[in-house]
């Protein structure tokens, strides 16, 4: 099997790359990113392409290999895409469409797993959120993710690709320094209290978010590459308040850790990242997709090195 991972040096991409390379039966892997290959990823089965999908020469290089399985993770994050809309369009939309067209021309109907985002849903109400929730993206990043979901579904309908889009929630714990994400507090809270550091949280103890470890995301990506299912799915995640996460950290690292956090809520951050409703992921759970199981397991998985 010939496998391609775009965004392979990123937070999720590097973890996925290492998982694929540790599986001796997964085949040859090509990683693509703007930077170098992660130090933990090496071996004769790995080929590395340094560059971006918005580079025509890179696309031509990819076109020389008929891939069987593609994990498309590369993107410009939401904050930067909003500040630089031309860059966001070029990478998150145009380059994704070009990649799908290139893969469709290979005529071997590769399996494509696309990392979409809950940002396609836009402003959330109190109603449960699932894959059938009407998409009303409120930022450019979410709009582009939705457009690519539609394009992948159309290629699948035509029989060019076998596509599945997974809407990812908040993934923890991003390595320090955590920056550029409105949801950075989710990772910083875990890092700080686990290390015995004081932390000023920008949302209130009652703020709720969807939490999923990078390890669990990789498990779900691997499953998506294997199952006979196409379409757009919402990944399961734990819906936890900040107070519940702090209590979980205290259970793991000692009751005194809960005293290290103080709260200075930012209304803007809390309105966007601290008012998440329940998830309706019954269909996804039935297919075998999963979350971390409990707040303690989430923390263990998220901080595992």
Automatic annotation (TrEMBL):
The keyword NADP applies. Residues 3-200 form the NAD-dependent epimerase/dehydratase domain. The keyword Glycoprotein does not apply. Gene3D superfamilies: NAD(P)-binding Rossmann-like Domain (3.40.50.720), UDP-galactose 4-epimerase, domain 1 (3.90.25.10). Keywords: Carbohydrate metabolism, NADP. This is NAD-dependent epimerase/dehydratase family protein. It comes from Bradyrhizobium aeschynomenes.
